[in-house]
Amino acid sequence: MTGRKICILGIGYAGAAVGRVLAAEGWQIVGTSRQPEKRARQLPSNWQIIGYQAGESSALAAVLETADAVLSTVAPLPDGRDPVLTADGALLAGFSGWTGYLSATSVYGAGAGWLDETSRAVPAESRGRARLAAEQSWQEALPQTEIFRAAGIYGPARNQMARLRAGTARRIHKPGHLFNRIYLDDLASIIAAAIARPRSGRIVNLADGQPCEQAELLAGLAEMAGLPVPEMVDYDVAGLTGMAASFWQHSRKIRSSVIEAELGVQLAFPDWRAGYRHILKEEGS
Predict the structure, then answer these.
(1) Domains in the chain, start-ordered, CATH in brackets?
(2) Does the pTM of the predicted model rise above 0.85?
(3) For position 62, what pLDDT does the model report?
């Protein structure tokens, strides 16, 4: 793979993690950002970070001429339109290399049983519907596009520890409400493995297969970190709004039939305890 180039559209927390894995394998990393100077200061100096907003076709065209792979981490608009494809779909339609789109497990809606890559996507709320529409747009424009449906992404600088330490975390009492996570490094390793073993149109669930209740996670993490266990608040009186409210509307149990069986990846952090032990160790806690 030495010398191959990937363009990561909207390079941020997840995209940069993928870039780090691929860079270690010899890939050249090009990332796009609406704030290229700021992102360039945060990322390795040998990565090329270019300014790009949807519709700035010349910037994207120059990158695509020499790219072997494209990964989009750009979120859809509320109505489900993908910003990149809406503005520059004609340009991307001619790209023949590997293509991936980072989506979310919200496309599955809710279900009492386990949901894997063979499960039908029936979104139950607006964010899930927007994600599914964007997935379909990518695969219509570029049929080779692989879809990565991520559960809650956590890792360094994006986890529950700050709220626990500040005493602002609340355990919400809603028995049976389960959710999955995926550790940032595992997400990146899975996407890199998919690039190495491409399959046109593949769907991959980026989830640890170990769903749990929010209250269980916060209580266990507080104990692990030697912090007070947050108060328990009943869901009906929690006063949740916006993004938080939509998260609590539906419970899902996500697993993958692809990660290990097809891609040969064993998660380094197969559950939240393993992930947070690593975070606390890295922090020196």
Answers:
(1) 5-155+182-208+253-268 (3.40.50.720)
(2) yes
(3) 87
